[in-house]
Structure formats: C-alpha cells, structure tokens
User: What shape does this take?
Amino acid sequence: MEKRVSVQEHMVAPRPRILHVFPSFEVGGAQRRLVSIINRRQGHFTHSVFAMNGCYDALKLVRDISVPKDDLPSFPKKSGLAAMRECAHLLDEYAPDLLVTYNWGSVEWDLSSLLGKRCKTVHVQDGFGPDEVGREKFHRRITRAFAYRRADAVVVPSRTLETIASKSWRVRTDRLHYIPNGIDVDRFICPPDPKVLAEFELEPTDRIIGTVAALRPEKNIGKLIEAFAQIADLYPTTKLVIVGDGIGMKPLKMLAERIGLYERVVFTGNMAHPESIVPAFELFALSSDTEQMPISVIEAMAAGLPVVSTDVGDVAGMVSRQNAAYVQENSAGALARNLSALLDKPEAAKRIGAANQAKAKRDYSLEGMIDRYDGLFMQLLGRAL
Assistant: This one.
C-alpha cells in the first residue's frame, strides 16, 4: 500500500499516523464526522483512509490538505483467514501508529490481530444495516463480541449502542467510550442560499418538509414519500426535499412519479454544504428503520427545525423535551400524522425548533466531540496534545 503525502505533511514534524478503514467512504454520517475532525484539527495527526469498496466520494469534503488514500481500487474478494492475512499484510506495509475501523464491514481488520497485533486499534460502531433491523444476526453478534473485545477501545455515539456493546458484545467498561456526535452548530444558523433554492425551483411561498440521508434501504425514504402522499392534498404549497444520493435514487424517483407527486418531491443529490438548504425547511423528517445518533438530526436542530421521526436509536432523547412527542413508532401513518400536526401549528413548530437549537448548542458541539476523540487517540498513543 503506497501512501501519498501532501506538501503540507513534509513541512511539519512527524505526527502520529492514523489509518481509518471504512467499508465505503461514501458521503454518509460516519464519513462526514471524520471529515469534520480532519478539517478542524489538521495539525495533530496524519490521517489516511482505506475504503474497502474503492469509493472515496467523501474525501472531496476535506479542505486545504490532501488526505492520502490507498491505491488499490477495492479490497480483494476474500473471506475468513485469507481476508485476515490480507489485512495483516496491508497493515505491515502501511505501518500506522493507530488503526481505526468502522462498523461491521471492516471486521476482517479487527480480526487480523489474531495473526499478531501490529498497532493500537479503535473500533467505531455507528449502527446496523438493513439486514439487522430490529435484532443482530446471531453469527455477527458472536463475531463482533470476539473481534471488538480485542480492540484497545470501542467507540459508540449512542446510549443504545453503549448498552449493546456492553451486554451483547461484552466489551470491557474501561475500553468502551460513549462519544456523542457533534457538529459545527454555527454553520446552520444562517439563511438558505437563494441560488440553491432557485436551482431546485423552490419558491419563498413553498412550505418545505426536508430530509438529509444517503439513499440506502435502511433509510427507507420510500416510507417518507408515502407519508407525504397521505397529507399532500391537505397542504398544496408543501414540497418534500430529499438531500442525498445512493442506490435508491432511481426507484424513489419512480415512486414519486407513480403516485403523482413528481413535481412536489425534489431530489437534490449529495450536497457538500447542506447548510445552504436545510434552513429553508419548515420541518425535518427522518424515516429510517435503524439509526443510532444521526448527524442529520443534529444539523436540523442547529438550524432551528422541529424534527418528525421514527422512534429509532437515541433520536427521542436527542431532540428537545418539547419535540419528543413527535418521535413515534415506525410507520408512514405516524410520520404523516406528526407532519400534519406541526404543519397545522406553525408557531408551536417554531418554538420547538428554537428549543432544539438551544439543545444543539449546549450538547452537540463539534469542539466537544473532537476533544474527546483527540484525547482518546492520544491516550492510546501514549502522547500528550
């Protein structure tokens, strides 16, 4: 694995080298979190990314410096012992000071320590995929317990996952770290960009229900479109704006067209700066079947929006006390009822949004999150900031 370094890296003293291994470095919550850490604290570490499927789309969001990536197009199609050996071989070539792995798709790297530990390791678990909605697969639960207990630290962003890691995977208390997600709250306290609104033909009179999500099955945007269809006739000036991209884009567009709402469902694709459009939303909606601590919800709160969501992960506890009643069950009907309730009470919705913004400022700052990650990394490396 050949490491590509930027000019800036040659101009500073050697820094601890951290290799981040993702199943995919697409534009998603975990990837955006790492980008935020790199952009804010460039001087502490040298970060490199390995995407096992060869997708590095989120690297485009990194500012000012280049983050090296692996030259291989993707991880070789191997499993079991062969995959573990490949991971160990790549670690020998790269020789990082710290390995950070993310979610189930990188488990081979965690298991490679069975062939001899190359460096300190951290595993970050953000949640589960569509094939584990409701409960873990038995063989994965056993493998996770075996693999993650070998890590020097396991990081989770939600209390729900903290309980799972402790009780299901038996991760030791002294190695288990709850680090809630954080964002640059001030970025979202701004007016929307008029040019962006014009690009997507959004008018000042439009009442916008919006969401930000990778268009993957577990996000279940189809359920949100179904909920919108149930109330669309009641609110003729309302539009549904979907920010994000993924394998679900084409079938979701077909669904919107089939139910006669194609002109009122707006797909923006990925946006490097969601703050250019999120403040234009009147309501934020989350329709996921599985989540833990979604960054998109924190961004909506920072923008002063009320949140209507399925009751997944920590969402009910993330939002303000006033908003919690609008986080209910996991159905299009519940989403439709709660969206309608807040559209009928715009002043109450604004008060809820203000309470959400105050909580985001207090509890979900980017600096607080980064301080905790930096502190953990330096603790494991035996260094002081």
Q: What stands out?
A: The chain has two domains: 7-182+366-381, 185-363. The domain at 7-182+366-381 is CATH 3.40.50.2000 (Rossmann fold).
